[in-house]
Amino acid sequence: MKHFFSIIGGMGTIATESYVRLINHRVKIARDQDYLNYILVNDAQIPDRTAYIKDHSKTNFFPDLKDDVLGQAKLNPDFFVMPCNTAHYFYNDLAALTDIPFLHMMRIAVHKFIEEYPKESKIGLIATEGSIYDHLYEDEIHRVHREVEFGGPEIQPMVTKLIYRDIKEKGIVDGKLYHQILQKMHDDYGCNVILLGCTELSLAQEKAPDHPYNVIDPQSIIADVSIELALKIRNGMDPKEACAKYMYK
Questions:
Q1: Is 84 annotated in the active site?
Q2: What is Dmax (Cα atoms) for the chain?
Q3: Is 198 a catalytic residue?
Q4: Catalytic residue selected from 22, 84, 141, 193
Q5: What is the pLDDT of residues 79-88, one digit of tens each?
Q6: I want to staple 18 with a disulfide (CB 3.0 to 4.6 A). Which of 82, 153, 203, 207 is the partner?
Q7: How far is CA 37 from the centre of its chain?
């Protein structure tokens, strides 16, 4: 297969399925051959990311990701994409394993926020406890000289319930709870824009989009970027040249 990219997924599987569904439905097609070429590694056995980030006595998830990346690198994809925010804890280590471009979903999303809302000095962040605990998004937001609002102590339990108890455990999206979280971040904490720092939250946005709040959805953004790059490369652009605009340092 020529001109394909590799998706390092399975974190979780339903969120990865959402990303694949986005790229399949958003690419413009007139025939089967117009769809994108990709290999999906749905490694559902990767240990829990938040558990390890918060407690290093838990199973380290890096070795599994390393095996997946090295295995795919042998096939020489045009680029890598990893639709899991929390797994970007090991982004630098994973990207160092290969010369193949490895997109940084979090970084791309934060720069999209700057482009779309240049006058906003802060952004609300809802994410897994692991992402927040290790400042994964917070650091990226501070790099572009913006502030982060996490909301009060009532927010994280609501977000955790939505991500783990509803989506990961039951496979359902509680749209009412999702909208309630957005409303509280907007009304109670003055967040004009809210960043969805977990792919399960991106799934919630896909399934329950009918609300008046401005969100930055990294999975939706990386889906659009994946399509853009894949089509440029299919049309003859060098993969590293095509990806260069998104390889923020």
A1: yes
A2: 51
A3: yes
A4: 84
A5: 999 999 999 9
A6: 203
A7: 20
